[in-house]
Target: Centrosomal protein 43
Amino acid sequence: MSAAEDDTELRDLLIQNLENSGVLNKLKAEMRAAVFLAMEDQERQENKTPLINENLKKCLNTKDGRLMASLIMDFLQVFNLDFSLAVFQPEINSVSSGTRLTRSSAALHREQGDVPNHR
Model:
């Protein structure tokens, strides 16, 4: 076996190991979040008007829409999907009408009886 073949085999084993342990997917998610946040920072520095998703804006202007977004954020936090949350929060809060959505928003809805508490 040549050195190039050894390197290829080692690389393939390393990739397989990283995929099986979940490390590779976590790194990919972290990179996607970093790219999104860097693009958002660049837009902010250039004072560009952010792109607004009108359908999302309409949804978040309703009580059910805000509840749904809060539940998604709750899900991402409970299952430690931090990089997905890092992308989701700025996208949601950039179009919500002045209401900052937080994980506690879902808890508030549960306390008001809007959502059954399954915990």
Remarks:
- Residues 107 and 113 are 10 Å apart (CA to CA).
- The chain has two domains: 1-49, 51-119.
- The chain has a mean pLDDT of 79.
